[in-house]
Design a protein that fits this description.
Oligomer: homodimer
Number of strands of chain A: 13
Mean pLDDT of chain A: 94
Strand order of the largest sheet of chain A: 1-4-5-13
Largest interface: A-B, 25 and 25 residues
Radius of gyration of chain A: 22 Å
Shape of chain A: globular
Helix content of chain A: 40-55%
């Protein structure tokens, strides 16, 4: 009866008291509230939203539904970065060791790929032997000794989110900014961080298709972080084309190593420097953004970031030799170019189609239970503004099994728009919310 | 996956195709769709509504989730009346035999009381021996031979509504005009009627507190009926005070018999004549409303309605002697007057409080499983506009168990407003929607 009353209160546009939200999430995580009542409540939240106070309580209750990583014994700033998910977004992989090399620890709990966007865990696991399933105690040890550790969600952290996400997935309540924000932020707060940089992707390949929605999500997440005493900054960055040249798990690890060597694509390196600079500011290792960015650039030049990455790979059981000789990473056996149909400039790239092309050749998952091929993916050959002649390769698909090659080819071909004039330059950072 | 897609479609404000709705309700009734998905969908309907085409499909699918009474072998018009529920609303009891006596058959499947409103079944069951649980075949026989039969919902009729109503009750999705309309209309259409008169109550004691909401509900229900080929008319009638003098099960049966004898309260008799007149028009036994009303009045004067009521009671196993000697009906042992606190005119009666007073002395149910005392209730002694002196009885509570008598007394006392001027006269019929 209490729950039905709570649903009606929210349904009628009234705010729920923090205690009510806390009890609700606790009882749901404990299995005391049936899914049908939670489903109805989630749909009321979809329509009525949650105000700042409700949201802080909601995220806090999710957070306290399980264990919270205790990093209090680890000295200094502990800052993580979270991206809402893009195509070719390997930024976390070079970023974490670079920030660690500059003196700010990075406790990073990441996710797997689903649909057209990849996942950091899947990418890291393409390094032979690399373990992402470390227990929390070992994770804390990695953060303390190496300075950066990257693992997957454990059973003990934020169990309410796991149950709730599964329910949202089948009840049409995923696409709610407060629910997305609470889900992301509860998991990030559970890492025990003191600071957090959010990378909210905007554009065709992103979950947020418009700047308005992205800004709304950014503000909501920053509000939750701030209310929980975590310095939180959100960058809105462009997802109008894949990040870097590589899309696919091992391919993106190889490109991450190029970034750490100072040989990475400009856009990827720029993102790493910008976000890393801010992480150093939040972690107290730099006084200004410029100072932070300079420190990250130095850590690239000196190889300190690459060394730290080696340490992290070693700590997590990976084959360190594969870092120095990327030919030891899994590699697809076959390649096929997707040619430009006519001469002109690349004026548009539909990232979702590019991401799906990598998925259909085996590099991604449609469903959680799908098994991925770490070797496959594609390499972008022509980015926005590139001049191409008819027949020039737009992208090269790297594949093992030709079964879905034609589908992937068609997706890439349809992803590209070729025009007579080069497109206007777009800034990488669209906005900063803090 | 299909269901999650359907939920999102509706959530985003798009109409669902009739085939989708039909499959949805079929699968839900068959237990193939879990409650959590239906709960989310019901909440989207709460927020987004259903258009006329969706509603007709929804009500039709509910209707066809079970058996539909086949009255095709019974000649002539078959017309029912449904009230959205009021306090002291015993209208169905004299109405059905009067309409039957005028040549239009009345197949009536009614509900039980819940909360502050009573239910026709509970009232009828205060007649010793009266059975409301007849099987469908016997119901058809009653309609064919007696001309009127009044039973409760069976397991075989509209099973989807039973499951869905239970879910709505605990998920905050009861108060939705399309869902209320589909629930009511599917049950009425399942009776196999050719015409239907709806009595939508408006005011403090009604489910619909405002004329706007009541009109919206009326239009929605009339739309569903019309699309299903059933001539449907809705009356919006005032629920600003209890109907008649009696509130309570056996008390209301006794008052119904007074109506059939031509000795009933004016308001109750007027409602019976108005609604009955329209039922005769819809059933083809009267050319105009005036003609229909005159026929009903005649059936009261001649005693034809009372005779038909006797036949119906006999057919349904009730003690016919209790009709002629109402002292054979259950009667409470004790009485307590609720006095007027000061002299003046009765300017307002909160029907919900009056209904709850009858409930707390044992005449109603808070929960479906509560057992009621058919004898108890209350008798209104001063209606709107009555002149009272301080100490004059406003109402008399008739009770057996004094446990909650003081609560009932306080409810009645708080229900009455006494002022210096008599209130403006209010019409019984506020509007007609057809």
């Amino acid at each position: 009866m209490l729950i039905a009353e709570t649903i009606r209160t929210k349904r009628d546009g009234n705010a729920l008291a923090p205690e009510v939200i806390e009890e609700l999430i606790r009882a749901y995580a404990a299995g005391e509230i049936p899914d049908y009542q939670m489903a109805a409540l989630l749909m009321t939240v979809y329509f009525q939203g949650l105000d700042e106070r409700e949201l802080a309580a909601w995220a806090g209750a999710m957070l306290h539904s399980g264990e919270v990583v205790d990093l209090s014994a680890v000295p200094g700033g502990k800052v993580d970065k979270h991206s809402t998910g893009g195509v070719g977004d390997k930024v976390s992989i070079p970023l974490a060791p670079l920030v660690a090399a500059c003196g700010v620890r990075v406790p990073m709990i990441s996710g797997r790929g689903l649909g057209h966007t990849g996942g950091t865990l899947d990418k890291l696991e393409s390094i032979p032997g690399f373990r992402t399933d470390l227990p929390v105690a070992r994770f804390v040890e990695g953060v303390a000794t190496v300075g950066a550790c990257m693992i997957g969600q454990t059973d003990t952290l934020v169990p309410a989110d796991r149950r709730m996400y599964a329910l949202r997935d089948v009840t049409g309540t995923v696409e709610s900014i407060p629910l997305i924000s609470a889900s992301i932020m509860s998991k990030k707060l559970a890492e025990g961080v003191s600071g957090l940089v959010l990378d909210v992707k905007v554009g065709s390949g992103a979950f947020m298709k418009t700047v308005e929605r992205a800004r709304d999500l950014a503000r909501t997440m920053v509000g939750i972080g701030t209310r929980h005493g975590v310095k939180t900054v959100a960058y809105l960055t462009s997802m109008s084309q894949p990040i870097g040249w590589a899309v696919g798990n091992a391919l993106e690890v190889a490109e991450s190593i190029e970034v750490l060597r100072g040989e990475g694509p400009d856009d990827t390196t720029a993102l790493v420097v910008t976000l890393g600079g801010r992480m150093l500011v939040l972690g107290g290792a730099a006084a200004t953004q410029d100072e932070g960015e300079a420190a990250i650039r130095r850590a690239i030049e000196t190889g300190a970031g690459l060394a730290r990455f080696r340490d992290m790979v070693a700590f997590q059981g990976g084959d360190v030799a594969a870092i120095d000789e990327t030919s030891r990473l899994p590699r697809a056996r076959s390649r096929r170019d997707v040619p430009a149909p006519l001469a002109g400039y690349v004026t548009g790239i539909d990232c979702e189609k590019v991401g799906l092309a990598a998925l259909v050749v085996g590099g991604g998952r449609r469903r959680k239970e799908d098994v991925i091929d770490p070797a496959v993916g594609l390499r972008v050959r022509a980015r926005l503004g590139a001049r191409v002649e008819g027949g020039d390769p737009l992208a090269t698909i790297e594949y093992d099994d030709p079964a879905h090659l034609d589908d992937a080819h068609a997706l890439v071909a349809r992803a590209y728009r070729i025009g007579d004039e080069p497109p206007a330059d777009e800034p990488l950072v669209i906005d900063i919310v803090e």
